[in-house]
């Protein structure tokens, strides 16, 4: 991989141990994806925040490097393991709380914006078309490449942090205008957000690094978000293009049969002990839609709603939070359905959700069964 004189200097350790470590990560990553060089970025979004995912080794690593490391570009942060405002309500292990707060403090010391959100594209201004960024959160990377017209690799926690520290990232194929070799034809009629989540999950399985998807003419922003969340869980695909692609593309149909196969794979229970909404986290438009669908109804069982802190504050000013709390909802910021210690198999057997991403992680990481339904169906079945 071609490096500039300054990059070579940093790799040799002439700019300090932190920069040397960061450039080693970037060079190793770049060589793995056949990148020809490094390019400047303007924004990094980091994963590797939840103590459940990085453990003691990750916490110790961040604690050590935060003594000297500082980010060079705007850097935002994925969700952590709990909402700091009400952590005492959830009987969490004191060691977990301590280590999670240490991780939070380390990132803040390095100059990272403590956004604790997996939907940076909804709570921050989007840069101009073609801007190079480095997003580690899978749904955000896909959304950036496919909908926001930005350019990012599907970064790891380490490579995104290295990009934040250096302001550089490998120039891989995802950063270039490419032509996917497969086209998925959307054939399901009257799709909802759950349908698009399953379409994304299917695309992640059959696609390589990118896919074409036709039949998306009526897809709205929330459905796109659900599709990006599903796609990010099932494979390496990190970009979709709208349309049929060229004549040489392999054509694959996503129809009722394929949709049912995915539903059967992820739906492992006929009912849930609690409801979770927000994986990816809910934005203000989704909260507004939920309040509108409730129409004064209340949930008959516990319902946990996950959204960014900035969205919660906006929703409170409008009056949405009062309405959701009246309906029996717990509204949590800073964390997400996925990988949270707030939901464990010791407390619940199954969770009802409308999220494909949430279903995948609840089943495979939290170890609980999943009852998969659309939001409209959840409102119909679980409120009175």
TrEMBL record:
<dbReference type="InterPro" id="IPR007506">
    <property type="entry name" value="PMDh-L-like_dom"/>
</dbReference>
<dbReference type="GO" id="GO:0016829">
    <property type="term" value="F:lyase activity"/>
</dbReference>
<comment type="function">
    <text>Component of a hydro-lyase that catalyzes the dehydration of mevalonate 5-phosphate (MVA5P) to form trans-anhydromevalonate 5-phosphate (tAHMP). Involved in the archaeal mevalonate (MVA) pathway, which provides fundamental precursors for isoprenoid biosynthesis, such as isopentenyl diphosphate (IPP) and dimethylallyl diphosphate (DMAPP).</text>
</comment>
<protein>
    <recommendedName>
        <fullName>Phosphomevalonate dehydratase large subunit</fullName>
        <ecNumber>4.2.1.182</ecNumber>
    </recommendedName>
</protein>
<dbReference type="Pfam" id="PF04412">
    <property type="entry name" value="AcnX"/>
</dbReference>
<feature type="domain" description="Phosphomevalonate dehydratase large subunit-like">
    <location>
        <begin position="1"/>
        <end position="380"/>
    </location>
</feature>
<keyword id="KW-0456">Lyase</keyword>
<comment type="subunit">
    <text>Heterodimer composed of a large subunit (PMDh-L) and a small subunit (PMDh-S).</text>
</comment>
<keyword id="KW-0408">Iron</keyword>
<comment type="similarity">
    <text>Belongs to the AcnX type II large subunit family.</text>
</comment>
